[in-house]
Specification:
single chain; alpha/beta; Rossmann fold; 2 domains; four-stranded antiparallel sheet; 19% strand; elongated
Length: 235
Amino acid sequence: MKARESILIVEDDFDIARIVSDYLRKEGYETTWASTGKEGFEEFKVREYSLILVDLMLPEMDGYTLCEKIRLESDVPLLIVSAKTEEESKVRGLGLGADDYLTKPFGLEELSARIRSHLRRYNRYLQKEEESVQQFLHGLAIDFSKRAVYLHQLPLSLTAKEMDMLILLAKNPFQTFTKAELYEHVWQQDDIEGNNTVTVHIKSLRMKLNDNTRSSKFIQTVWGEGYRFIGDQLI
């Protein structure tokens, strides 16, 4: 039997979250509720969802930041549900990677119709992804779905945090991440001033990739800013 599609609802208004959750469950979806942006990101990190509903005005982490963080790591459909009606808010939300924007108050039937539409497109997209392995020059291969890394066809033994960092960097090539951003994404904690954790893990990851700092093939240091992935993908 096919598993029910799961939807994460990130909404700080209990009444709205309950009404939406109850309706979607009756429609056959499995739902999870997070009441803050930070809690929503933590839920996203621990399991896979078919679609995520995001309010913008959230405590701890606003909806814009949440959408941006999720989109760096996943192509899961993001549907913003917000009372903010300004065009600027819609443009900003969609520009950060959201797939749709629904203004409160909204009808539950319209919400359900939009969800079905985005799920159909996303499922077709997943079916077209026949190959999740990306090959790069200098012998690097990354299997994103299986979380496996190979160098010259030999599997590399990476720690969970090293794997998380490499996947995040490789999925966003040539985008510079500060140490604080890497720490917040991978360790899911606020960075502490003087924290040397990211530096240590990057050094270990480079050693396993046989990636020389002075002539980087994969992970480049952007002095004064952070790190970025510069691997040349084979077509």
